[in-house]
Batch of 3 targets.
Target 1
Amino acid sequence: MADDNSGKLSGAERAAILLMSLGENDAAQILKHMGPKEVQRVGAAMAQTVNVSKEVVFDVVSNFVEEVEEHASLGGSEDYIKNLLIQALGEDKASQVIDRILVGHSSKGLDALKWMEPKAVSELIRREHPQIIAIVLSYLESDQAAAILSLMPERTRSDTIMRIASLEGIQPSALQELDLILEKQFSGNNAVQQSSVGGMKTAANILNFMDGSVESEIMDEVKEADADLGQGIEDLMFVFDNIGEIDDRGIQTLLREVSSETLVLALKAADEKVKEKILKNMSKRASEMLRDDLEARGPVKLSDVEAAQKEILAIARRMMESGELAMGGKGGDEYV
């Protein structure tokens, strides 16, 4: 990340600058309280942070301090914690941290998997019963689950997606079996309540993060085996072209969380409807700059474009789930 106006920085980039300004020891203490996905995202932003001016650092730190100073007391209210994390990480990155701190009570075994590389998790579960694989992937973040699924044998991928889509909950006995696999001992008990995981939406989210060719293969096999289930999953999938269906105010909100470089890459192969939707929700100067960047950018790898689009989709999906974005309708006249 080169020198830039602090107002254009994503939440992860602001967090990276803030942490790097604190020094190694203090930054390390903060990172200990983040989840694996947040550490990876902020860490990646740190690695890309170069040539940041003193003015930008000052703006980022000042904005953070102003947010803290608005609170006269040091109470541990949920609203204060949420606002503080959102200020530091942005809406998208903070949501998962908030869930972990205020709501999350995941088992140690599953939490351990979230810190592991997809290849390691794949090796750990590939010989287990397909239903156990489906349960494990349902618990993980969709992008990590997609990476793991892509490493599984081709013959098991569609079966796994169908099992995930058909999950309605996990019985205590299944939780005990999962504990046996992950911790090599039974830690559950018959009093454990059924956990709501899986379902067609989970399957759709995982497929959204997979490469286009692999996703198509899996969907073809699912539809062949169960046409209704396949259609149900497909109806819930959210692809980049659907960005054009988000209302104007939602587009403006979304753009605040997306870096300029990611946006340019994502739009290189985007539908014209999506491009125009984004451009019309930017200021005249910003839209002109984006058009210039798109024209000046030479050929790029399709894999880079798909990765940028998936990054934006991940942000959009989480914002929809929190009610910040809506499909269709008329937006306001606010600009970014």
Note: Residues 78-103 form the longest helix (26 residues).
Target 2
Amino acid sequence: MYNIRLSQYMDEPKPATSQMIVAAHYYAAWKKGAPGLHNGFDDLHGYPERTPLAGYYDEENPEYCDWEIKWAVEHGINCFIHCWYRRPDNMGKPVTAGDLRCGHGLHEALFHARYQQYMKFAIMFEASPRWGGTDPKDMLEHLMPFWMENYFKRGNYLVMDNRPVLFVYQQQRLARECFRDAAEQKKTFDACREYCVKHGFDGMYFGVCNTTPTAEEQAEAEARGFDFRFGYGAGYTPAAPYPPEEEVLTQQCAILKKRLATDPMKNIPIASCFWDPTPRTTDHWNQMGYRFRKETVWYLQPDNYRRLLVEMKKIIDQLPDGSWGRRIFMIDNWNEWDEGHYVAPSHEFGFRYLEAIREVLTLRDNLPDYRMPQDLGLSNFNKSWGEPDLGGVCRERFHLK
């Protein structure tokens, strides 16, 4: 039987128990027309191996979000960190959901998902120059009220020590354009913490995206008011494409050790599965100022990814109690389908990356459900994309006539 409706809805998730927050970065760019910079799944017709195992999907659909929640929590991922983009023309103004790029992943999908209570979430404020920045007045009068009412007060937002956690990308932009100096940024962050206290919290935690393993970078982060450092990726770039996987594994661990050496209390580990931005190595991306290069491609196959997780866990198990590295473990990435790093179920890798995460980072006290939506006749969540087109690039890559 295939695609015959056998159930009215998927079964409730059966989460695996983890003794830490296992947080995967989440790039919500798979609603038709939402990403802006690229065409979503329409850019991937020539890369059928990157097709999600459930097929193309309308990401704004809460039912598909429930499937993602189920797959994630049954394999130990218990938090999604959503990239949070503010449109440039919204800076200095009150924020609404309509002022966001890719805000559908939260406001249309997660917040209407039946099983949302199983998945914690957090936001990563994207402050890169292409998106809206901020300043002291704007952050306190516009960003914080929106974040508080829409995110921080929700029961499944990531709150630690009764403090909501905010992840920040592109600190360079904050330092260069948004705040006069480190003291002004720290003063603003402290005011945000006081704002949270007024709303019943004990403060607020700020994390900065930075995998540079230097004491100078660590000191700069602290001077600007950040509580910890994390990465969007492991910070590894090979000297040549497709390096030996043993090198990828050892270098990721070496970078983590160097970061921890600067401060064992304030650096979060991140394990990257692979990096292959081939779909983005086009003139279109070059014209926008992005420099994705095929020379940077590398892979860890799922078995070696499992080994990486084992080695990283050995490292963080030696950290002091209370360190950020003992509290949060990051996964790169849930769904960067075109940029080329994802652990979500795909046609190329199936559930193998998720199985590695469950095996190493959980107590394995559940039984994951590997039935796909198609198996239950519940796969009707693609209204926009059509079917993958095995033409063009695909024919060239696979030598098809």
Note: The chain is about 30% helix and 15% strand.
Target 3
Amino acid sequence: MSLTKPFPLMLAVCFASSLLATNVSAQTTARPRQTSNPVQLTARTIVRGATRLENDVVVALPDPTAEDEPDAVEIAPVMPEHIGRPERMLLSAIEERLGTPYRMGATGPNRYDCSGFVWSVYQSAGINFERATAHTLWNEFAPATEDEKHKFGTLVFFNNVRHVGIVADENGFYHASSSHGVVYSRFNDYWLKRIAGFRRVPLPQATPMIASAGR
């Protein structure tokens, strides 16, 4: 039998098979590989003026100002004996609350937050004002003068007016700390760099006694 006739047919079949294999290989290379958990890149948000996808990787940088609050001071200062009656009542109310634990929104007697402690102390001393946040107290009272800033009873505010305490003297203040409860703390580096300002709560003035002139 002659092989001349089947040979062109076999050559055509081999050529067609090679062309088909090349086409399949090209399609396989171009097709993206799918994973079992495809990432959806649809949701977008605006962050600091720039658009980013919700599933972008965001690196949280450490806060350079974040520090642990220093330990509480166990020994409070000795107040001078010549302070007036309102100041003595304030000091007595503060001393009664030293060591009381902290709780957000609490006004005592078993728990206090910072503004609740301030409000409770002044109420016990007979000085009435509405219970309010540190920010509201800041707006309610007038700024302290330079001579009043470190006078006992002045309010001192910290952390962008989010925390408030009562000045003891130029060395420290009383406050309800979220870490330590009601304590006396010194004006150390930790607190000094966080001071927002001072406000003075008006204290009642003692009525002077006028002796009647004898005849």
Note: The domain at 85-199 is CATH 3.90.1720.10 (endopeptidase fold (from Nostoc punctiforme)).
